[in-house]
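Hi all, a correction to my earlier message: I attached the wrong file for Nitrilase. Here's the right sequence:
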Amino acid sequence: MKIAALQMVSSTALADNLATARHLLEQAAGAGAELAVLPEYFGAMGWRDTDKLAWAESPGQGTVQSFLAEAARQLGLWVVGGTLPLACADAQRVRNTTLVYNPGGQCVARYDKIHLFRFDNGHERYDEGARIEPGTEPVVFTLVARNGQSWRVGLSVCYDLRFPELFRAHARAGADLLLVPSAFTFTTGQAHWELLLRARAIENQAYVLAPAQGGVHENGRHTWGHSMVIDPWGEVLAQQAQGAGVVLGELQAQRLQQVRTQLPALEHRVL
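and the right structure:
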C-alpha cells in the first residue's frame, strides 16, 4: 500500500494553507497513495499562541473538518489531518487534535496530543501547555487497504516522539504503522528528529510515516522539515528536506513479517 507524508510551510492564512493541502492531497492521490498524512498545524501557524483560540472548531463541525472530510471522499483517500485546534471545556485552551477520515469521508479516529512541548535555550522559547490542554489516551485504528490487507495504525504528534512508552503502547495494541505529524523546530529537529524516528521504528518493528512542517514561516518560526518514511528495520525509504511536497513510500506486509520473524524482539519483551 502506498502512503504519503505531506510536508508544508504553513502561513497564518487558513484559506491559503487549505489550498496548499488540497494540492498536495491531489498529488498524493495521483501517485497512487491510499493514505495521506498532513503535518501538525497544517491549517495555520499563528503570529502568537492565542491565535489557536480563534481558530478552534467544535468537534464534528468547522471549516477544517469539512475540508478533510470532503478531500477524503472526493479523492478516495484515507486522510489524516495532522493537527487542528479543537475546543475544550477550558475557554483559554484548546486540544491539539489529529483526526482520521476514511475514503468515505467519515471521521473514524481522534487523537489529542498527550505530551506538550516546552523549550527554552535562551533564544527560542515555547510552552504549548499555556494554550493547549493535553490528551490522555493512546489511539490506534485499523485501516483496510484496497487489496483487503488490514493495517493497525498508531497515532502520535511531534513532541510525543520523545516518549517511547506511548509507542510501546501502540506496539502492544498491534501497530504496524506509526504516524508522527510534526512541526519540529529547526534546532531540535537538526539534533534529534531522524534519530528518534528511526529508534521508534526499530524498537517497535513498525513502519513510521512522519510528515512535518519544513521551512521559514510567515511568523518567523523555522521548522526542520525532513518528512520521511521509515521501514521496520530503521531504513529511511524516502524524505524531503525543506519546502512543501509529497514524500511517498510503500507498506509491505512481507517486509514487516520478515523483520519481526528474523529478530522477534516484540516477543522478547519482559517489562
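Sorry for the mix-up. The longest strand covers residues 78-87.
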